[in-house]
Amino acid sequence: MPSIKTLSRFLLISLLFSSVAWATIIPPLQYTEKQSETLKEVISRLHSHHYRDQPVDDALSQKFLAKYLETLDPARMFFYAKDVEGFEKNATKFDDYFRKGDLGPGFDIYHTYRQRLVSRLEQIIDLLEDDSVTFRFDQNDSIVIDREEMPWPNTRAEADDLWFKRIKLSLLNLKLAGKTVAEARETVARRYKNQLTRIKQQDGTDVFETMVNALTMLYDPHTNYWSERTSKNFDINMSLSLEGIGAVLQSEDEFTKVVRLVPGGPADKQGQLKAADRVVGVGQGSDGELVDIVGWRLDEVVNMIRSPKNTTVRLEVLPSDAPANGETQIISIRRGKVKLEDQAAKKAVMELGDGDTTYKIGVIHLPAFYIDFQAQNNRDPNYKSSKRDVARLLDELSKENVDGVILDLRNNGGGSLYEATMLTDLFIDQGPVVQIRTPDNRINRHHSSNSKARYRGPLIVLVNRLSASASEIFAGAIQDYQRGLIVGSQSFGKGTVQSVTDLLEGKLKITESKFYRVSGDSTQHRGVIPDISLPVMIDTDEVGESAYENALPWDQIHEVPHARYYNFQAFLPELIADHDKRVKTDPDFNFILDQIAMMAKNKDKKSVSLNEKSRIAEKETLEREAMDIDNKRRIGKHLQPYKTLEEYRSSEVEEQDDEQVAQNQYEIDVDGDTLLIETGNIMVDMIRILSTDAVKQASNF
């Protein structure tokens, strides 16, 4: 039974909310006959063309309802338990409705949501603008920051308490960022006014798109419906690469999340925006007002970010390693176009020794698999492509007498499948590279290496969690042929192929086939597992195919005959043992491990305090932990440790400025990239082993 104190609190909050005017009654939105026919067309295409053979039945109907409600109310703060109970009466009927093109029940759910949303927003705005309502930040209350698994509120009082805490959280975050309470109230009220205006401007197309995507996402995360408006606003990958910042975005709950950065794009060069960061505000120019975009449709966010080149956009970003309540940062990015030369492969040479001998290691960084198809079709003899550029760099490195080559595919999100095949051609003799299977189990093995290897020396391919698609095809082929070692972290796991088809209204992007390695292993979901693992500062629970709901599973098909150039398994244990021994005492390597451990600990936080002093103390504690692990690194490198937090904070600002300059230069850092240096050390160990007579005689090169 609730305590007297709890009941009194609910009563107070309910009185505060109920003192505002009744919400505007909004008329329900209507669907069209054309949308009904389009829905039936979507159902038909999913059945006949999607890789996953999934029946449209009662089970799918129940999943649809759960996904639809999650899409509309991910934090479970608008609907009441009684609303959801009413919706569930139709839980097993949506499959029947969809076959008939009946959108009525889905539109009814949306109307309830929209009415609840309008009502709540109007109440919040009135509350924030009522000077008689005060917000105290000296109480020992807190708020649950992840309500995905929490129950919907049963009563108005429960919902009012949740919302009062959410408002307090927003105000406190702004207060901790330097605003006065009055300024914070004005900012939060303006955010909700913007959201209210947008929700009142919605039409039936918005509802239809939301509904259909709740259905298509049950098949896999890359199958999407685009209304005509959405398909005009951004390209297949939702990439802002034409005149924008060069970032691939997606909607996740009420946030706009960065999936990856376009290699060589403005955001990539600027260096601060990262994969899995959440954009919560957008401002134009160096001093334009930051508009809160939490809860906005993705196409609306894209329109705000995309503008003519050489203009500035400011993003308010919640970093990927921060909780949903965390402090944001402002990132200014100058818009521009991504050019092929910005994505071009680059090389460097690093010199490393094993105590007796100094080795020259060539490094090639390939940000994307690119090709200028137009120039190629025009028979331009100098057309740019990743394969041609890497071939030229390999020739240059050979002339510099390098002892081995590291091909760095970290953060390479893919690109041309043709180029991935052609790149493999530089390192292996003739043979298959990738298999592609369609829903009817037909297997295409036409993508093959067709000539003798151009480079036959020691090879390591460096990958991380953001190495995806074509990168995984190349790395998988190199691993299957035992042509080189794969070093780094588990790759993304994007092993599916999509096509876009026109519908009666809008377009459908649908997953139609799947990639498989020559070993028969899929690259889907699991990605490529490195032979030697390195730590990664990316949260694999947030980034990667396995982070998506309903991602297609990993599986296998038959292996195809292929050569094996080395027997790496025979001496891999020795390489791993040498690696483990070396990094155990490496201050920079252990600094990365300490940072990852700190991120993991903070990620487990389930609630956040609404007490200002507690939050300030928590922030200082985190800063001290960060300073302690940095001091551990500095002492290990015989540098002077930081004595105070103030000294550490000022150094952090200086280091961020230095990192940004380095990112803008977009060069390979052979002196400061800890993981690249360790990969070079692994290469030295491998060269030493490969040079022995026994390994030479066993190899096919």
TrEMBL record:
One Pfam family of this chain: DUF3340
All residue ranges annotated as the PDZ domain in the record: 235-307
Domain of life of the source: Bacteria
E.C. number: 3.4.21.102
Gene3D superfamilies for this protein: 2-enoyl-CoA Hydratase, Chain A, domain 1, 2.30.42.10, 3.30.750.44
GO biological process: proteolysis; signal transduction
Any one cellular-component term (Gene Ontology): outer membrane-bounded periplasmic space
UniProt keyword annotations, A-Z: Hydrolase, Protease, Serine protease, Signal
Signal peptide stretch: 1-23
Glycoprotein among keywords: no
EC top class, as a word: hydrolase
PROSITE patterns with a match to the protein in the record: PDZ (PS50106)
Molecular function terms from GO: serine-type endopeptidase activity
Matches recorded under InterPro entries: ClpP/crotonase-like_dom_sf, PDZ, PDZ_sf, Peptidase_S41A, Tail-specific_protease, Tail_Prtase_C, TSP_N
Family membership noted in the UniProt record: Belongs to the peptidase S41A family.
Name of the protein in its database record: Tail-specific protease, periplasmic
Organism: Teredinibacter turnerae (strain ATCC 39867 / T7901)
